[in-house]
Predict the structure.
Amino acid sequence: MLENIMKRTEWFRKDRFGMFLHWGLYSIPAKDPWVKSLEKMTDEEYQRYFDEFNPYLYNPREWAKMAKAAGMKYAVLTTKHHDGFCLFDSQYTDYKSTNTPCGKDLIKEYTDAFREEGIKVGLYYSLLDWHHPDYPSYGDETHPMRNNARVRNQAHNFDNYLDYMHNQVRELCTNYGKIDIMWFDFSYGDMIGEVWRAEELVKMVRSYFPDIIIDNRLETSGKGMGSIVTEEPKSYSGDFVSPEMMIPPNGICNYAGEPVPWETCTTLNNNWGYCISDKEFKSIKTIIRKLVECVSKGGNMILGVGPQPKGTIDKKSTSMLQDIGEWMENNSESIYGCGISEFPKPEWGRYTQKGNTVYAHILEQPIGPIPLTGIPKERIKSIRYLADKTEIRRVDTWIVDSYKEICFVTLGEVPHFTYELYDDVDTVLEIELMD
């Protein structure tokens, strides 16, 4: 099974970097996408956001150009989040964007725009639905009405909900052209696996797109890995593990010690959707270095962006994506197509590798020359700055004479002097190895 997964995810593991767009009614209160649950809002209380949803400046071509300029190769947009509101024109519900003042099928415009920019298209679909009358409410650990005595005895026909869910996923597979990623979210408690008729669901999706990539959350929530890492993966185990807001300490392997595909999903600040009060944005240095960390451990990063109610990306996020793009423009060769290096992690940073090319990501200013630890001197053919391809000088003087097995390099003219890094965020050296 792992062989099939690795074949399906070949492009995914080359592209490494994507954009995750969380957008919906919750952008209007400008809080967490879980705001309806967190504040235990009734359908009536939440309805005002539906009544005024009108992203009159929505232009997904601008989003796509922004993602491309940032170096992102694929994107995933929420078609329906946990609140049940659909950004697409589903024939199975009235709770959709075409019935708001917006009046548009927002998913159609998104898929068209991102494909035009050469970005692979992913769709997020929540397994939960806090609006559907047949989704369990009272006693459910996530539902806004979980503690509301008014719905204690309300009957639910969960099979009816499952039919609804499967039908909507079928719409997404048949109305929007080729879909590259299907991102289901999420399983919890007893709501896991075959409760969702998961085998049937995956079989249906793959009947339309045999090579589509599916995440692992039909089995888990992000806090676990599911059966993809076990000796007997289930048919719905997915194609990649999806750790959230963290990076696995040692990457992710299966029971046999074989690396499996994985993707860290994280955000620019601390919220998935647009949150006007959240000013805790990560630094560009942090984002880029964590992207490098993911790649060095054999993983991907999908970076969350929350569009505003009017359909635009806020200025801070836009500026950050531009800054990420500037670094990627010079250094993306050390990300795309790269993965775990055959050489151990150096103390001053990380290695990523693609074939016979090792990329040394220098994250700490050295004192004197830099030791390219772990890489045999005799295998090194050339060393250059990746950003401009200028040659890096090797050091073979008395100050490193005690370490003859290690190749040292200097970032300036005098070997024992200390020099500023070429790029304070991440200075990347391109090291060509002999066969």
